[in-house]
Amino acid sequence: MKKIKIAIQKKGRLSDKSINLLRECGIKVSNGDRKLKTESSNFPIEILFLRDDDIPQYVEQGVADLGILGENEVAEKEKEVLTVERLGFGSCRL
């Protein structure tokens, strides 16, 4: 069975919120302490822990099926990726 690969920040503001979102969806996953990837114990899902500025490229190239990251990273990297849903957390203020 093919696993869905989700890329999230390995550390930073969105990391904990992304893990919490997955858990709220019923996906059992560890927080990836010093790991590059982990697997869900109850769904065919693999979580990739990446630097936030690498996530758009991984999604564009198909290494990850989707990514959770700030829209600013998508805009700055100019990669051809689709915003599926705005999650309502991690907003940025100047």
How do the helices and strands follow one another from N- to C-terminus?
A: EHEEHEH
Biggest pleated-sheet summary: 4 strands, mixed
Distance between the termini: 44 Å
Characterize the overall form: globular
Q: How many helices? A: 3
Question: Which spans have pLDDT < 50 for at least 5 consecutive residues?
Answer: none
Structural class: alpha/beta
Q: How much helix, percentage-wise, in residues?
A: 25-40%
Spatially, the strands of the biggest sheet line up as 2-3-1-4
Mean pLDDT: 86
Percent strand? 15-25%
Features:
94 residues; four-stranded mixed sheet; 4 strands; single chain; alpha/beta
Could you explain how this protein is built, in words?
The protein has 94 residues and is an alpha/beta fold. It is 27% helix and 18% strand. Strands 2-3-1-4 form a 4-stranded mixed sheet. A hairpin with a 5-residue loop joins strand 2 (37-39) and strand 3. The longest helix has 12 residues, at 13-24. The protein is globular. The model has no long low-confidence stretch (mean pLDDT 86).
Lay out the secondary structure.
Layout: E1 4-9, H1 13-24, E2 37-39, E3 45-50, H2 55-60, E4 66-67, H3 71-77
Parallel strand pairs: 1-3, 1-4
Antiparallel strand pairs: 2-3
Give a short summary of the structure:
This protein is of the alpha/beta class and 94 residues long.
